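User: What would this chain look like folded?
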Amino acid sequence: MSTSIHVVLLASAICSVWAQPKTGQPRVPRVGYLTGGEAPDVARIVPIAPTSGDSRDLRDVAVYKATRAFEGSARWALAQSDNDVSTAGILKAYSCSLGVALTRDDAPLLTALITKATVDGTAAFNRLKKLNEQRKRPFLVVEGAICLPRPSGLEGNPDYPSGHTTFGWEVGLILAEIAPDAATAILSRARAYGESRVVCGVHNVSAVEAGVMTATAVVAALHGSAAFRTDLDTARSEFAQLRASSSDKPLACPLEAETLSRNPY
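Assistant: Here's the prediction, encoded as structure tokens.
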């Protein structure tokens, strides 16, 4: 299977196994960097989901209600764009912070690295979703607009943790190592990528926070993999060459910068 096809298939499944049919459809073989005991036990790292009426749940509900005010705004539109977790979508999301517009074709080594690493992230958040399957998405508990058409396809997918956030933060951490001089901008965008799920109304704040913790644990474990470190080095060299070749036309995104200059909650 080619890298580009593998990327598309992985991205289509990133939200979790909960959306996949139980029978009748072949599963795409997916192998990450971590095997056996190398993967972190995220169930011991990430706290259990809030329960109805506890302090974390009350905060989740309050933030969900308050952020419905973003409907129709520029931040709402960015949240809609951030719903795209294909590799093309994630590279586009980070283009402004990287200062370079990347594509799968321009950066095949980086694409392959992200594809393989996010298999490990996906396995981690899927495990947590199974352990927290009772935690519903906020729009199923409290009436309010969301940035996606309804039905969204998320109704049967547990809230906790956020798969989009896990994916976005994991990629952000990797990109920050590939372009350390841009790490602040990259990680700021990674935070906003997760916050988009709250703005959109499809995840609670607690689920986004859990996604960040999940991704952080996975990336820490990935550094124990010699294959990951090797691929990281080759992707860093590839990016340096791409950046050098586009130095005469740096990417500037004032609208995105203005939109993200204010915290949504």
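Residues 118 and 167 are 6 Å apart (CA to CA). If you want, I can go into more detail on any region.
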